Amino acid sequence: MTQLTQLLINNTLLEINHIFVCLETAPNKLFLEKIGLICSDNITKHPQQGTASILIFFDNTYIELIWVEDATMAEIYAMYSGIDFISRCYSPEKVASPFGIALHLKSDIIHPEHTHSNSSNHQPLEEFINFAADNLATQTEPICFMIPESVAFLNIFNPLLEAHRKLINHPLGIKKLTNTRIAVSKTGNLTNPISMLETEGIVEIEQNASPLLELTFDYGIRGESIDLKSIGIPIVLKY
Question: By residue range, what is the domain housing residue 21?
Fold first, then answer.
């Protein structure tokens, strides 16, 4: 039994830290800003993975949009980690899931003295991630993994800082992620981590469908939505 499975069995001790989406090319940042989404100013480089990413922050999570910049390094990384960003890069013709779900301990059981720590002291994230082997090998499912407390979103993002507040002050007006629904091409039994996320109500899973991430913010009280598939991002935002 994996650490992730045991935590889920212990009556929903987890919540979503962030979700990543693998894309074929860098996203159209100007378009995202035009529709009212603020993106991180800087591109984050992951040399060992051969990837780069930009982040979109919200009150309780963030989306990481990842693309491959160095195919050779991405292939090497896939060989020793099992995470094949190239295969998972989103395309309407692919059945591989382009998504990853990062989980952390619920905020009400995190010790207050550990919040808002200095992220510059953290070790590389790859050293901490614990994968369930069957989930990692099933490319039609999102990758599911744990984020340690020291690098959890609520510990490194401080809304009291002006620079951080600016990143969540979206002109679109959306603030808090309240529901996550993921469509997968897979049919039949899901691996234990994904099945338990669904059972515990952390995510909703729709099977036998084109890969899609449907995120509802603020309980969808405005009854509006934005579909980003037109710019190669398999995400629908509801708010």
Answer: 3-170
